[in-house]
Specification:
The chain is of the alpha+beta class. The protein has 2 helices and 4 strands; from the N terminus they run E-H-E-E-H-E. A 4-stranded antiparallel beta sheet has the order 2-3-1-4, covered by helices on one side.
């Protein structure tokens, strides 16, 4: 699995913001959540190109905006 850092705009708190993003991302098939912090999440997946629209929709559903997805070296 490859690991990616998601940059997320609009998160302001460690509790409800992080929980909202975690709940939405945990509903995605083929995504393993590594870490979630204010304005970023680290995930692993084997299928990023197919999941990109779902990642964007999940972050929007949580109330935030997905700014970028970068591979973690």
């Amino acid at each position: 699995m490859a690991t990616y850092k998601l940059t997320i705009q609009g998160m302001h708190c460690m509790n409800s913001c992080v929980r909202s993003v975690r709940e939405e991302l945990s509903g995605l098939k083929d995504v393993s959540i590594q870490d979630i912090r204010v304005n970023e999440a680290t995930i692993s997946t084997d299928n990023l190109p197919a999941l990109q629209p779902e990642l964007d929709a999940a972050i929007r559903e949580a109330g935030f905006q997905l700014v970028s997805v970068q591979p973690v070296a």
